[in-house]
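Reopening this one. Same input as before:
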Amino acid sequence: MSLPARDHDPAPAGASASAGASASAGTSTPAGASASAGTSASAGTFASAGAPASPTPPGTPAPTEPPARPGLRPDRLVPTAQGLRDAAARHGAPGRNAVVMTMGALHEGHATLIRAARARVGEDGFVVVTVFVNPLQFGAGEDLDRYPRTLDADLELALGAGASVVFAPSVDEVYPGGEPQVRITAGPMGERLEGASRPGHFDGMLTVVAKLLHLTAPDLAFFGQKDAQQLALIRRMVRDLNFPVEVVGVETVREEDGLALSSRNRYLSAGERRTALALSRALFAGQERLAAQEALRARADALPNGRDRAENRAEALSRLGEARAAADAHAVAQAAECASPGAVRAAARAVLDEAAKAEPPLTLDYLALVDPADFTEVTDDHAGQAVLAVAARVGSTRLIDNIPLSFGPPSPESPTLGAAT
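Same output, byte for byte:
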C-alpha cells in the first residue's frame, strides 16, 4: 500500500512487520510473534486524532452511517466495517479481492497501485482502497494534524483508477475503545533507518495494516516500492504470522523531473523542490556507477585469458604511449568479480554533499545500501539484490526515496522489491 507515514508517501495506514513480531497483554501470537502493550503515538497524539479517552460505555448505540455528502456516491464510500461487508456482499462476484491501503491525499502513485490491483483481479474482482490517517504512525512532533485530508478528491481518483469502493473509517471505527493495548512490533528490522529516525512508527504501521487486512480480507495487497522498508516489513509480517494474502510490490512512480511522487511534495517551495531533486539524482548516480562497474566486469570476463590478458595489454599500450587506451585496459583488468558497494555509496554521497551546500540546503538523515531481506548494510563482497535508500529534510519537509540494485549475477534466494510473496 502506498502509505504516507511521516516521511513516507501515503502508506497503508500502518503497515510494517518483521521477523520476531511480538505480543503481550497476556495473549499469544502465532509464529513467535510477540505483542507489545505499547510503543507508538502518545496518548495525546491519539486523542488529537479523535479517539475516545476510554472505552465506549455499555449500551451505547453502534455508530450509524453518516448522511451522504453531495457528489460522494454513498454506495462507493463506506465509513464502517459493516458497510464494507455489505458492499462486498452486493458486489457478489466470484472474482478475487484486492486492497490498496493509503492515508489519503491520493496522487498518481496511488492510482498506479489501484490500476495494478484492478489488472490482477480483473473486471469481476473487488478492489478496496482504504483511506485512514493512522495516529499510531505519528510520533511526538510529527505532522498528524498537518497531514492533508482530501477525501472528495481521493474518492474521485480511486474510483477513476478502478476501485470498487473506498473504505474511509474513523479512528473510533478502527480503534474502538481508544488506543489499542496489544500491538504488533516490527522487531530489529523496524529499528533501522526509518525506524531509528521515527521510533515506534513501524509498530503503528504494522498494527493498522494487520487490522485492515482482517477487515478487508483480500487475496492480494498492493504496496509501493517507494516505502521499501515498510514493504519488506509487511512481507515479513505476512510470512511470520501466516496471513493468507499475497503482497505485491509496485514500482515507484516519479514526476518528470525524477522526484518520487509523494503527498509531501506539495509542502515544498520552488527552491526547496530544486534542492530535493538531489535525492533521486543521488540514487541514479549510484545506479550509473554500478552499471559502469558491471560493464567493466563483463568485458574482463569476456577476454579469452581473463584479467591477465587485459593487464598485459595495458602495460603494452602504456609503453607505446597510448595513455587513454592503457587506462581503459587497466580498468578492465582491475574490475572486481562484483562491483563495489563502496563505489556506489560514494557516487550517491557526492551528489548529496553538493546539495548540502545549496540554498536552501539539503540535510541528510541517512544514505544506506542495504540487503532487502533485513535492511542491514551490505559489505563490499556483497552479491545479489540490494536497496540504495536515502532520507533527507529540505526546509521543514522530510522526504525518502530508494532504488533497487543488483550486484553480480542474481541469486535465486535474494528477495526483490517487486516480487510477490
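So the earlier flakiness isn't reproducible anymore. For the record, The CA atoms of residues 80 and 169 lie 6 Å apart.
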